[in-house]
Amino acid sequence: MTVQKAVEKAVExxxxxxxxxxxxxxxxxxxxxxxxxxxxxIRRGIQFHxxxxxxxxxxFIQGLNDELIIFCDMGTAQLDLLLKHLKEKDxxxxxxxxxxxxxxxxxxxxxxxxxxxxxxINPCLSTSKNEEEMVSEVCAAGxxxxxxxxxxxDEKGNIDLAGLAVAGALGDxxxxxxxxxxxxxxxxxxxxxxxAKKGLKLGDGKIRDLILFSTDPYIPLMGKVEWVxxxxxxxxxxxxxxxxxxxxxxxxxxxxxxxxxxxESKAGAGIREDDLVGTTYILNSEVxxxxxxxxxxxxxxxxxxxxGIGIGLCLREKKMIEEATSLYMKFQSKLVSELxxxxxxxxxxxxxxxxxxxxxxxxxxxxxxxxxILAEYxxxxxxxxxxxxKAGLGAETKISARxxxxxxxxxxxxxxxxxxxxxxxxxxxxxxxxxxxAGASIPVGSEDKFIATLDRIIGEQRNRLR
Length: 466
Ligand code: C5P
Hints:
By secondary structure, the chain is α/β, with parallel strands linked by helices.
């Protein structure tokens, strides 16, 4: 089935119901996806109950007793469980994750022979060659936006929800310049829902704070109060000024000075111009206008188990801004403290094998984001694996793997989703995700075997292309 046909079928099914259960993933893409669907349901007069989870457990699926269940940003990897427990229900899966290599109980045939009460919107499963290019790099929020567009009967057509799709794409680091994302962006800019602004991609706020907490893009001054103050004094910029209030000439001066920091950095931890400068989308219909800030706040809400605040932001509730901002600051403080710890250990914390870097994180809840920053800015030559070891009997170690897009575009053959799935299976864990960003959970005690296996598998992936 094509994505377009699946979207139409999902809408046809939804329209038959007065109530829906929405289940979504806890990251920015998941929360904005759910936000888009909730807004679209409200506007059609369909009531809903939304639950945000970090993964889809069998016990949770078994407990779902609603007639229509919409899964966002998840469900592809659990298709066999959904079919087993929810075959009497109407089920819509809006997901962009790669289907598992080795489904646990069912086979890949499941995907092509779904019951008529199931719709699976996932570009990885599109049967149309023409569609492939269009939908290859779309996030769940973009797909949810397509559903919302189709679900609307009025002339406004839910185009104002495009800002949430942009925030979702930013969260998953998916560009807006190609395929379906470009189409979403173009129509939203035309409708003045979104505007594009060129300049520093740091979000908005007081310049001093933006630099102090700038982990992505990674600014080598991050976390160092005296350095930041000295830097701002040298460039003659008042740290309390909001970035959006800087004169054009001041922003240029600041940009040049920030870019020159890469030359001074010893670990090669530099800022590339395209990481720091470019287009920021302004979300004219949302309560937080800067798309970077919106994405970061929503993401932090999910990570601290306060996804309801994030959904509130997506539903344009201004009173959520304060708490969402403080959650974001709390998250950044953890991240900055861990990055400073790595820096002060002079690289001793990071272990290197022939095909990967790996590292045990101390702070909890930042594993994936930290892996992304290390892979993108600091340890760029190989995939970075971050392990978060939990104490206690029967505890699981959570692992995140990231590699920067340059590694992938070097056509190195690396596919972290496949590598993590295979390596975790070998130690009785489970994993998957995307080629550049994947995760796994494994039993405590199996970390060494897992790491060695993963290194071997990634080595095999690279060799295959040589
Ligand atoms: O947890 P983390 O942010 O590292 O996950 C990266 C990606 O891997 C996400 O898309 C997530 O859904 C996927 N993942 C998975 N199986 C796991 C953990 C994560 O498929 N056990």
